[in-house]
Predict the 3D structure of the following.
Amino acid sequence: MVCAVISLGVGAVSIGLSEIVGLLTESASSTTTSTDRSILLELRLPRIFSAILVGASLGAAGVGFQGLFRNPLADPYVIGASSGAGLGVTLAVTLGFQAGFLGFNGIAVAALLGSVSAVAIVFTIGSLSTDRSPLSLLLAGVALSSMINAIVSLLMFLNDEKIVVILSWLMGSLAGNDWQAVRSTAAASLLGIGLLWVMARPMDANLLGEQAAQSLGLDLVKFRILVVVAASIATSAAVSSAGIIGFVGLIAPHIARYLVGPRHLWLVPTSSCIGATILIVSDAIARTVVAPAELPVGIVTALLGCPFFLLLLKTRSPIGGVHA
Amino acid sequence: MSPLVAQELSFAYANQSILDRVSLELRAGEVLVLLGANGAGKTTLLQTLCRQLRPDSGVVLIDQSDIRKFKPRSLAKTVALMPQQENRDSQLRVIDVVSLGRTPHTGWWLPLSQKDHEIVKQSLEITGLTAFGDRRITELSGGEWRRMILARALTQHASILLLDEPTAGLDLKYQLDVLTRVQRMARECKLTVVLTLHDLNHASIFGDRLAILSDCKLLAIGTPREVLQPSLIEQAFGVPVTVIDHPIHGTPFVVPLYERESLYKRGAER
């Protein structure tokens, strides 16, 4: 909350704390201009809500994938969900796909389809390997991500007139998210996070291994499908709103585990909050360091996230509870 | 009515036969001990009895119903498995893991009731883990970890308990403690228990019936006195033995006949 309020004030145009409070509480002081009001209410506020939803979705999706694969390295980016969603978005942009579904716009639907398909392929390939270990699944994800990224590059090469639009998705940015975009992201984001939260206890059982989960009455096939779908919905909500943003889905679950332990009942909401905070802060930095221009937020999350993550690894090993 | 029946179970891993037409019929309140050399198929048999593995042929019946027709939760309410190994690198606490044993009853979404918490507490007491509730499972010794898995299986309150080497890694006190409690629970609560052991003399004392697996087949099944025959044991384990009466219990007591040197020679010949 504090980060969100501070973030409202920073950017190409600085707005003081008292003006922000005045505007938010509808008691605008005489110093508040209509431009400030417009910047705050029509640009920054929806952008910050988008950052909250995108960060929370990535944080929850990271917990889902790490829990499902029982691997602390799994995150939407590594496992192929983000790349799949990115391919979906690229195809939607190049083919001009517009068909919405249940209130989601065409881009969001394409991101969801791409994300679910990529994770389903990873799971199928990983399951067909002889040892069926989570590591095989992860390697399958890394391989598929590389292939998808190559296809995305090819599509950009063949459609150079749309390269700027596609690149803005792939580099990750929260710019241009209005209230309509927030509403569209909110539905998918809350659905994905909610589904993952509901799966908290099955994910706890899955931490003990497939045999244990099965002997406790867990239907593994349904469980995997539900987690993949839920985490993919959350990922695609994030990708369709802000493009591909790496690292948040990886580090938010680790920090959350450090704070609240490995039980998913606490892990899912905590990781969501941490993901949201990371993205608010990263977006504020992205808007200010080269103002009036902006950095893609994905670059900031990676630049900030990596040293922080390495510091966490050094101070606490093994992290959390998928090892963790 | 027999609570657990296995009919003509066959199973192979990559064309290598592990079980070949194995049949068993268990009674309520009975403890059946599975014996056999390493790799004889004991764990595979237990896994087919709880549907963790699908046999290539044959069928498992629980209360005369085909096990394949059970929904996962209703199967977990009826059959609890204590596996030999599972993922141990989770940072979950002992109480979290043991509490998961109640999920077949509560479902995956509802919180545990007061009664469920009582059952968890009892299981921790039975396995001597009351003081370990808040400990991370990565901090447990091998024996403590096995007791925790047993506690989780007991928490399931299933009428059929399948225990894969429940005494492995336990010191003598806990070996006897676990086996005595399992035997008592089977009698008092009419539980059907199938467990695997390597100690033939523990099997003799605590098993109502014993079954020996050898060369993928059920070599013998019956009372300890019927099964613990020197010829059968030598056939299954490749070790000559003599069987005397236990001085206190009067049960068959197996004494291996070997000298260290001859054992080494035998190993070298193989």
Q: What stands out?
A: Chain B touches chain A at residues 50, 52, 71-77, 80-81, 83, 86-87, 89-93, 96-97, 100-101, 103-104, 108-109, 153, 156 (CB under 8 Å).
